Amino acid sequence: MIQIIPAIDLIEGKCVRLTQGDYGQKKIYNENPLEVALQFEDAGLKRLHLVDLDGAKAKKVVNWKVLEKIASKTLLHVDFGGGVQSDDDLKIAFESGAKQVTGGSIAVKQPDLFEHWLKTYGGDRIILGADAKNEKIAVSGWEEGTSIWVYDFVEEYVAKGVKYTISTDVAKDGLLQGPSFDLYKNLQDKCPDLNIIASGGIAGIEDVEKLAEMNIYGVIIGKAIYENRISLSDLQRFSV
């Protein structure tokens, strides 16, 4: 059964969504992220993808108090990302209650440090962020492109102990036009034992069903929930 992972993106402690990672296209959905997290928990969902967008921009964890509040007042399994750039950032995230932490930019720019985290905490707790634009890795809140082929990037880290990856097609994110099925199929073919978490572009329950049929491990859903394209009751059958 595919893991349903609703998303909360944070700017100034508020629940927001961006379009294609553009901070200029910001929409505030709720000023109280804990309230949103409790709604997810009440609907029977077990997980939460929490992204510190301020942190991604500042290159250090900023909204750790929101993480701490959600982790202490819900039973949600929280994976946290955004701005985790140092040992101190990682320590803050885990001490604030994150069960898993995602490293994206760090895996590109400081691979030795990311590998150290993998060895220290294990592949069950460190998620590889592999966000792509035209199948090339994008970093720093998608503000920087690279020439790194996403499939080679992921494959190399799987060989070093990565078990989970969150992969977003930047071109799809926030547009409600469907996810990049080809991206996930290609990742599956290259790394059959990897737990792939699809993110970006989910437009309706049919997209979730198709990813489930593909045996994708998990799916992150953000704007489709906030814009009422998918109801929380729609998702309950996947959480049994």
From TrEMBL:
Swiss-Prot/TrEMBL keywords: Amino-acid biosynthesis, Cytoplasm, Histidine biosynthesis, Isomerase
Compartments where located: Cytoplasm
Entry's Gene Ontology molecular function annotations: 1-(5-phosphoribosyl)-5-[(5-phosphoribosylamino)methylideneamino]imidazole-4-carboxamide isomerase activity
Enzyme's top EC category: isomerase
Reaction(s) catalysed by this chain's protein: 1-(5-phospho-beta-D-ribosyl)-5-[(5-phospho-beta-D-ribosylamino)methylideneamino]imidazole-4-carboxamide = 5-[(5-phospho-1-deoxy-D-ribulos-1-ylimino)methylamino]-1-(5-phospho-beta-D-ribosyl)imidazole-4-carboxamide
Pathway in which this enzyme or protein is active: Amino-acid biosynthesis; L-histidine biosynthesis; L-histidine from 5-phospho-alpha-D-ribose 1-diphosphate: step 4/9
Its EC number(s): 5.3.1.16
Family listed: Belongs to the HisA/HisF family.
Protein name: 1-(5-phosphoribosyl)-5-[(5-phosphoribosylamino)methylideneamino] imidazole-4-carboxamide isomerase
Lineage, opening ranks: Bacteria, Pseudomonadati, Bacteroidota, Cytophagia, Cytophagales
Gene behind this protein: hisA
